[in-house]
Design goal:
Helix content is 51%, strand content 19%. It is of the alpha+beta class and 154 residues long. The protein folds into two domains: 75 residues; 66 residues, no CATH class. The strands form two sheets. It has a three-stranded antiparallel β-sheet with strand order 1-2-3. The chain has a three-stranded antiparallel β-sheet with strand order 4-5-6, with no helix packed on it. α1 runs antiparallel to α2. The longest helix is centred in the middle third of the chain and has 53 residues. The chain is rod-shaped and about 105 Å long. The N and C termini lie far apart (68 Å).
Amino acid sequence: MIEYLPQAVASLSAAANIIKGLIEIRDFTKIQESVIQLQSIIVDTQSKLMLSHNHQSALTAEIDELKKECMRLKDWATEREKYTRKEIANGVFAYVQNDFMGKLQNAHKYCCNCFDNFKKSTLQQFHIDVGRKLGLSCHNKCPDLVFRNYIDIS
């Protein structure tokens, strides 16, 4: 916005000089030429002020979006502290609440890939080969996690 203000002030200064000249002119054609020139300067000044206003509005909108994103990330950081990445089966990891007690099969689990990308995506359990293998799937189309047993089940 500030970059447009000196240009607008310069235009207004030129308009003031033309007005001073108009007062001194007695010839109608010279007055008409000066009035046209004055109108051109006024339109140019309005245009620059409109650009300045539009630029300021765009910056204000961008600042508002950045503030929202900052708040979202702060809220996420607080939420993230409630979960820990745990090995739930050999080589299989998921995010589980810090205070969870019990069998990992019963825990509410989040996909590590999604969680690390600021999303909570609940892993859904499914069976493969009628009870021989277990799997966890993420609704965000991350690769399925397939394993035989949870770590806490012997």
